[in-house]
């Protein structure tokens, strides 16, 4: 069975894709995605396909980082997303998260 790696979108400021695995969440820098020239960025399709093709190594790298270890290159470029950061965009900037409406 393949490890779970879910793409949660792109962070334009970090030029990275956010992923979530069973071990935690991390940023995958765009420059890891093969075939790029300096200054280029992958299409979303290319990024998602690359992440899917490398999910085993990405999951292992996130697990290593979560355990305080350094993953093998080039996956040592991954950065964990702190658990204190929310999945809700804007919450870090003090904006309230969007919560589901209460059922009545």
Summarize the entry for a quick read.
The protein is of the alpha+beta class and 104 residues long.
Key structural traits:
globular, 104 residues, single chain, 4-stranded antiparallel β-sheet, alpha+beta
Structure commentary:
- This protein has one domain (5-83).
- A hairpin with a 4-residue loop joins strand 1 and strand 2 (16-21).
- The protein has a four-stranded antiparallel beta sheet with strand order 1-2-3-4.
- Mean pLDDT is 82; it is low at 90-99.
- It starts with a strand and ends in a 24-residue tail after the last strand.
- It has helices spanning 44-53, 55-66; strands at 5-11, 16-21, 24-29, 79-80.
- The protein is α+β, with helices and mostly antiparallel strands and 104 residues long.
- The radius of gyration is 15 Å and the shape is globular.
- The longest helix has 12 residues, at 55-66.
Strand order of the largest sheet: 1-2-3-4
Number of domains: 1
User: What distance separates the N and C termini?
Assistant: 41 Å
- What Rg is obtained from the alpha carbons, in whole angstroms? 15 Å
Shape type:
globular
**Helix and strand composition category:** alpha+beta
Layout of secondary structure:
Layout: E1 5-11, E2 16-21, E3 24-29, H1 44-53, H2 55-66, E4 79-80
Antiparallel strand pairs: 1-2, 2-3, 3-4
